[in-house]
Design brief:
The complex is a heterodimer of chains A (113) and B (107). Chain A is mostly beta strands and 113 residues long. In chain A, strand 5 and strand 6 form a beta hairpin. In chain B, 0% of the residues lie in helices and 50% in strands. Chain B is mainly beta and 107 residues long. In chain B, the strands form two sheets. In chain B, strands 2, 4, 5, 6, 9, 10 and 11 form a seven-stranded mixed sheet that branches. Chain B contains no helices and eleven strands. The chains are: A mainly beta (113), B mainly beta (107). At the A-B interface, strand 5 of A face strand 4, strand 5, strand 9 and strand 10 of B.
Chain lengths: 113, 107
């Protein structure tokens, strides 16, 4: 069974940092490009970042460029998102996904003082 | 970047009605389009890929069509369990872009 399990969300003050993790199982993680997608409360889906299977290609949404860093460890079947300089508008549920048929359950990040 | 325009943003229909949602891409994306269903508090679920292919296990009342820039998603006979928000998403080019969503409610 395919599983993507996110962790690391929580409450953080504006300007703070968080590191999200996503543990993958049930499929050949190293063969798939992966993404982080977020959803602010009551809003639609917003793509955040993409990383290719070998980490050779990385993209970011303009809204997070320079503040967020995506990475992966294929040996550990894990995807990461380092989030720095967090803003109120980064408050959202963050999903790791191959943006196809594999999605995690999401982890909530709340940025508030 | 490719922009996806989805309409309507919400609709209300009766059980058994035919429901249609449209999605327009800002440039030709061939048939590289997914449709998702998302219920409150849950992750999106892939229903249709490559614009018209039904994901395994998805009821046949769901269908998709289109290519190029214009796409349609249809529920042939709306059921109470179909209450959800539906999203289109292109994967022809990076970054993958989502439509704004269509919230489907029962009248």
């Amino acid at each position: 069974e395919v599983q993507l399990v996110e962790s690391g969300g929580g409450l953080v003050q504006p300007g703070g940092s968080l590191r999200l993790s996503c543990a993958a199982s049930g499929f050949t993680f190293s063969s798939y490009s992966m993404n982080w997608v977020r959803q602010a409360p009551g809003k639609g889906l917003e793509w955040v970042s993409y990383i290719s299977s070998s980490s050779s290609t990385i993209y970011y949404a303009d809204s997070v460029k320079g503040r967020f860093t995506i990475s992966r460890d294929n040996a550990k079947n894990s995807l990461y998102l380092q989030m720095n300089s967090l803003r109120d508008e980064d408050t959202a549920v963050y999903y790791c996904a191959n943006v196809g048929d594999y999605w995690g359950q999401g982890t909530l990040v709340t940025v508030s003082s | 970047d490719i922009q996806m325009t989805q309409s309507p943003s919400s609709l209300s229909a009766s059980v058994g009605d035919r429901v249609t949602i449209t999605c327009q891409a800002s440039q030709d994306i061939s048939n590289y389009l997914n449709w998702y269903q998302q219920k409150p508090g849950k992750a999106p679920k892939l229903l249709i890929y490559d614009a018209s292919n039904l994901e395994t296990g998805v009821p046949s009342r769901f269908s998709g069509s289109g290519s190029g820039t214009d796409f349609t998603f249809t529920i042939s006979s709306l059921q109470p369990e179909d209450i959800a928000t539906y999203y289109c998403q292109q994967y022809d080019n990076l970054p993958p872009a989502f439509g704004g969503g269509t919230k489907v409610e029962i009248k």
